[in-house]
C-alpha cells in the first residue's frame, strides 16, 4: 500500500533509528559473520557501509520502512496480487512499463515482479534469460537506466504497487568485471570464484554433487586454457559460481543488495538459494552456511531497509523448503515459492487424480500459518516433474513411465489431451525432460482456437478459470504470469531467432499481445470471459475475511479421486471450495445439508447436492 506518512525523520532521529536497529541485531550478526569468516575488520567495514547505505536511502523509502514496520507482515494481506513479466516483452522498456501502469492497476495487481533486467552479455545465448549478470548496478541499456527504475518504483508506490526483482547471488556472468580480472590472472579476483587445476578435486565434485543441467550443460567446471585452470560453473559455462567462503564476496554482494533496495525495490527474489555455499565432500546443497548467509541478509535488511521482503527460490517439496523460513526467533526468508505444489497441480490435470495434490496440500496446511508461500500456475521457467514418486509408486505409478506420460500428455499426444507445448532439456538416454507452455495452451485454449471448436473453447476457458480459483484458494500470495489474464497462447516464433532457438522456454516468453486487450471490452470474447472471471475472483478474495493468511485451512478427503475439496475457516465463516479435475460432470454431496452462499453467483440457498460440469469449481460459504 502507498505510504500516507509525510514527515521525514530528522537527521539525528534517523541516525538514532539506524543505531537502534543495529543494536537489536548486532551481536547475532557479528557472531554469524565471525563463525563464517573470523574477520573483525571485514565485519567493521560491513556495518559502516550499512550505515552509509542507510544514510543514502531516500526519505520516501525510509518513510515506507517505518510504515511497514508498524504494519507488520504487510505482504500477507489478502489484497496482494502479483504479476510476473519481462520488461521488453510487456512494454519494451522500463519507461514503457511506467506508461502501462494504468493497465496493471486495472488487473488489480499490487505486486509487480520484473524479470531480470540487470546488465548481461549482449549475446542472448550467453545471458540465461538475464540470470548471467555482468553488472549488478547497471540496467540493460536497451531497457533503460537505474534512474528509470527508481522513478518506476516511485510511481508504483504512489499507486500501492510493490516491485520485485531477481538478485542472482550464486554466480556472475563470465563478462562481469570480477571474472574479467580473474581471467587476467589477478589473484584477488580469482579468489572470488572457485579455480582448480587438480583433476582429483574436480572428480570428487563430479562424484558428490548432482548436475543442474546434465543434458545441456554437463559437468561442474569449465576449463580456461589461458589460465591452465578450470572454474566452477554449476549452471552454464558462462556463469561462474561465486566463492562465499571469501568475506569480500559476501560484503560486496550485500552492498549490491542494499544498492538495489535503495532504488525502491520492495521484494528481493534470491535466486538458487540452496546452491550458495560449496564444500568439498558434500553435495553442495542446503548446507548450514547457506542458512547463516540468508539469516544475515535478513538482519542486514531489517537494519538498513526493513520495508523490504526476501523471497527465496528453493525448488524442493514444502516440508524441505520450510527450513528457509528460519524460526520465529531467527527468521530467514519472508516468502518462498510453492514449487512442488505447482508441478503437482499439473500432474493432477494430466491424471485427473487429486490424491497426490491433496496430500501435498495437507503438508502445507500442517506448517505454521506464519509461513508465507508464493503460489502460481506457471512462471518464466519450465515445469520440472519433481513429484513424490515414493507415494505415486504405491499407487502403481513408476517414475520413468509416469514422467513420459506427463510429457506426452502436455504435448497433446495422448488421448483426451488438449494441451500444446514443448519439452525442455530432454535427455534421450534417460527419457527425462521438463515442459514449457503458457497456461492457456496447457488448458486447451490454443487447440480449441486452432480447430475453431466453440464447445472445446468453453471447456478450456472453464479449466483455466478453475485453476486460477484453486490458486486463489490457497494460503499465500497468488501471482499471475503476464498474459494469462488475456489467455496468451504459445509463441513459436522463438525458433526463428538463432540466439533463442535452442531454448524452448521462450515458447511462453512471447511479446505481450496488446491487441488482445481490446477484446476485454467485447462481450463473449475469450479475453473478456477470462479477464472478467479473474476480476470477480480477485474481488471476492479481497472482500472475504475467510481468505486471510491466518485462516484455518484443510482438505476434505472426498471419495471421488477427481474432486479436490478445500475448507477455509475464519471466525464463524466456513468456505467450501470444490474443484472438479475431470473431463466429465460430477454430482457432489455436501457433508450436511445447510444454507450456503455461492460467492461467485451471489445466490444463497439450501444445498445438499449439486452438479459440477467438467473442470469447474464452486466457492460455497456457510
Automatic annotation (TrEMBL):
GO terms for molecular function: hydrolase activity. Keywords: Hydrolase. It comes from the Bacteria. Coiled coil: none annotated. Residues 84-529 form the Glycosyl hydrolase family 13 catalytic domain. InterPro entries: Amylosucrase, GH, GH13_cat_dom, O16G_dom_2. PANTHER family: ALPHA AMYLASE CATALYTIC REGION (PTHR10357:SF213), ALPHA-AMYLASE FAMILY MEMBER (PTHR10357). This is Alpha-amylase family glycosyl hydrolase. It comes from Enorma phocaeensis. The lineage of its organism: Bacteria, Bacillati, Actinomycetota, Coriobacteriia, Coriobacteriales.
Amino acid at each position: 500500500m502507498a505510504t500516507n506518512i509525510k514527515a521525514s525523520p530528522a537527521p539525528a532521529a534517523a541516525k538514532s533509528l539506524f543505531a537502534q536497529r543495529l543494536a537489536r541485531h548486532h551481536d547475532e550478526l557479528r557472531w554469524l559473520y565471525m563463525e563464517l569468516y573470523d574477520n573483525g575488520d571485514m565485519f567493521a567495514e560491513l556495518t559502516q557501509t550499512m550505515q552509509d547505505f542507510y544514510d543514502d536511502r531516500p526519505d520516501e523509502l525510509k518513510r515506507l520502512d517505518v510504515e511497514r514496520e508498524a504494519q507488520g507482515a504487510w505482504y500477507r494481506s489478502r489484497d496482494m496480487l502479483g504479476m510476473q513479466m519481462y520488461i521488453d516483452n510487456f512494454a519494451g522498456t522500463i519507461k514503457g512499463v511506467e506508461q502501462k501502469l494504468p493497465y496493471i492497476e486495472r488487473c488489480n495487481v499490487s505486486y509487480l515482479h520484473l524479470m531480470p533486467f540487470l546488465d548481461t552479455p549482449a549475446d542472448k545465448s550467453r545471458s540465461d534469460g538475464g540470470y548471467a549478470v555482468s553488472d549488478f548496478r547497471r540496467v540493460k541499456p536497451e531497457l533503460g537506466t537505474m534512474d528509470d527504475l527508481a522513478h518506476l518504483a516511485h510511481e508504483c508506490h504512489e499507486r500501492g504497487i510493490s516491485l520485485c526483482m531477481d538478485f542472482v547471488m550464486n554466480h556472475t556472468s563470465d563478462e562481469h568485471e570480477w571474472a574479467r580480472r580473474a581471467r587476467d590472472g589477478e589473484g584477488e579476483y580469482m579468489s572470488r570464484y572457485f579455480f582448480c587445476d587438480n583433476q582429483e578435486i574436480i572428480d570428487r565434485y563430479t562424484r558428490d554433487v548432482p548436475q543442474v543441467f546434465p543434458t545441456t550443460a554437463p559437468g561442474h567446471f569449465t576449463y580456461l586454457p589461458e589460465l591452465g585452470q578450470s572454474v566452477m560453473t554449476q549452471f552454464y559455462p558462462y556463469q561462474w559460481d561465486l566463492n562465499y567462503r571469501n568475506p569480500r564476496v559476501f560484503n560486496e554482494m550485500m552492498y549490491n543488495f542494499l544498492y538495489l533496495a535503495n532504488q525502491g525495490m520492495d521484494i528481493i527474489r534470491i535466486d538458487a538459494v540452496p546452491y550458495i555455499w560449496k564444500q568439498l565432500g558434500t553435495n553442495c546443497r542446503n548446507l548450514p552456511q547457506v542458512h547463516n548467509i540468508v539469516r544475515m541478509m535478513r538482519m542486514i535488511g531489517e537494519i538498513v531497509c526493513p520495508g523490504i521482503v526476501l523471497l527465496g527460490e528453493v525448488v524442493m517439496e514444502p516440508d524441505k523448503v520450510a527450513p528457509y523460513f528460519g524460526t520465529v526467533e531467527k527468521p530467514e526468508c519472508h516468502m518462498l515459492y510453492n514449487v512442488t505444489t505447482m508441478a503437482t497441480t499439473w500432474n493432477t490435470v494430466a491424471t485427473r487424480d487429486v490424491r497426490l495434490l491433496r496430500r501435498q496440500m495437507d503438508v502445507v496446511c500442517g506448517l505454521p500459518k506464519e509461513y508465507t508461500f508464493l503460489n502460481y500456475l506457471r512462471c518464466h521457467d519450465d515445469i520440472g516433474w519433481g513429484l513424490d514418486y515414493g507415494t505415486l509408486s504405491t499407487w502403481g505409478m513408476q517414475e520413468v513411465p509416469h514422467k513420459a506420460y506427463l510429457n506426452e500428455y502436455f504435448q497433446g499426444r495422448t488421448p483426451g489431451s488438449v494441451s500444446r507445448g514443448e519439452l525442455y532439456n530432454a535427455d534421450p538416454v534417460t527419457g527425462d525432460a521438463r515442459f514449457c507452455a503458457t497456461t492457456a495452451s496447457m488448458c486447451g485454449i490454443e487447440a480449441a482456437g486452432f480447430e475453431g471448436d466453440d464447445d472445446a473453447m468453453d471447456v478450456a476457458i472453464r479449466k483455466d478459470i478453475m485453476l486460477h480459483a484453486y490458486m486463489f484458494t490457497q494460503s499465500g500470495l497468488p501471482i499471475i504470469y503476464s498474459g494469462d489474464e488475456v489467455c496468451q497462447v504459445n509463441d513459436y516464433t522463438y525458433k526463428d531467432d538463432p540466439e533463442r532457438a535452442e531454448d524452448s522456454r521462450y515458447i511462453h516468453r512471447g511479446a505481450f499481445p496488446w491487441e488482445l486487450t481490446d477484446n476485454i471490452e467485447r462481450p463473449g470474447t475469450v479475453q473478456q470471459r477470462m479477464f472478467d472471471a479473474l476480476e470477480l475472483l480477485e474481488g471476492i478474495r479481497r472482500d472475504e475475511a475467510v481468505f486471510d493468511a491466518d485462516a484455518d485451512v484443510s482438505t476434505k478427503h472426498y471419495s471421488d479421486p477427481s474432486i479436490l475439496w478445500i475448507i477455509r475457516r475464519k471466525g464463524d465463516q466456513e468456505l467450501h471450495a470444490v474443484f472438479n479435475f475431470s473431463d466429465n460432470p460430477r454430482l457432489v454431496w455436501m457433508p450436511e445439508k445447510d444454507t450456503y452462499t455461492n460467492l461467485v453467483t451471489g445466490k444463497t440457498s439450501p444445498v445438499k447436492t449439486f452438479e459440477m460440469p467438467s473442470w469447474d469449481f464452486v466457492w460455497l460459504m456457510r
